[in-house]
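Slide 14.
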Amino acid sequence: MTKQISFNAFEMNCIAHQSPGLWRHPSDRSTEYKDIEYWTDLAKILEKGLFDGIFIADVLGIYDVYHQSAEHALTGAVQVPVNDPLQIVPAMAAVTQHLGFGVTTSISFEHPYPFARRISTLDHLTKGRVGWNIVTSYLESGSKNLGLSAQLNHDDRYDVADEYLEVLYKLWEGSWEEGAVLRDKQAGQFADHTKVHPILHEGKYFKVPGIHICEPSPQRTPVLYQAGASSRGQKFASQNAECIFIAPPSKIAAKKIVQSIRQKLREEGRDPYAVKIYTLLSIVTDETDQKAQDKFKEYQSYGSYDGALTLVSGWSGVDFSQYQAKDKVEYIETNAIQSMLDAYVNADPNRVWTIEEIAQWNSVGGNGPVIVGSAQTVADELQHWIEETDVDGFNLAYILAHQTFIDVVEYIVPELQRRGVYQTEYRTGTLREKLFGQGAYLVENHRGAQFRKGIKDKFAQAS
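Slide 15: predicted structure.
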């Protein structure tokens, strides 16, 4: 029997996130991204459909690799303009009770000390429904606007990330002991100062001597998401991530990545199934297969060839404007998302992609596949994906805002529930408790859990 299927909504605080050109469709709402009602409406739709959460991507930069110019990104609204992902979360939390919020921020562009406070604040305001997607960033444009002459090398960025996480674990897990917060109005004592410790961190990249200036939030550490599928990215994820996102174009590619991730989790001494793996996917559905196919053809007519190659060039670090439409895609080592081209070139020996095919593929639904059909057809295919690839769920990219998610909630969710493979109610508690049915904090064998006691002991030795 197929295991339970989970859904996340893949979003971004921008226009036509994964489907460049579709913002022109008369029914699309994504140009309203700057209005709070856009996000509160979406949150209510997703909670009605019992989605695990909304996963909000982000880039601090612009896609200017294609033609070595920002022209197509700007004219086609290809993930620009893009607003801050964190500021929309409290509004969505206020109109929901269970929906989780996975926010993307880069370790390359913000010091861990103020970031720790921002996430703790969100975790408080959402009553423990926040997750953090850890990224190291891949756009040179973002680095340059922060005064860096160039982006760090791919693997070096993960070395920085290792220490960045160490600082955060010390702040979130170790600085305030359990029981440090008293809130004793009678005695006039809010906190027991003997149970609040400076972290005394001195490393290669960061020096953070003081305490975490937030009291512990419901989860302390947010649920940790990670999307690196390169060898170095998988190593980092196997040590830190609780949920992992992948974006292969086929089942063959997905199965290969999932097997590698599960093996690395074993090597780190973690249960390979203690981590949820979501794969990128889009759904076009309607009452019948024919209506869904007609809808998909209409969507394809709005897709943008240049917009798609703007995205793919930015993701891969390869300027696809230098090739002809019929040229075959080859693997090129870059400093961007190294797993991107590998999934096209090496994962499926039976498929050779041309530039034109990649552009068409990415113009509707981004890098992931699109499943088209009635509820029965789509549900069958989702179950095949689960059985054949061993993923746990799907990171669903919208094609039309918010119609894609309305259709999924109306057609797909009830069909999956009838088959007994989709939740019919949320678990109680924090996001971590809802996802894993365990406690609100990191499990004891997680890398971050070791810092709960370690800070106290280190402080005692230094005193």
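Speaker note: Confidence is low (pLDDT under 50) at residues 334-338.
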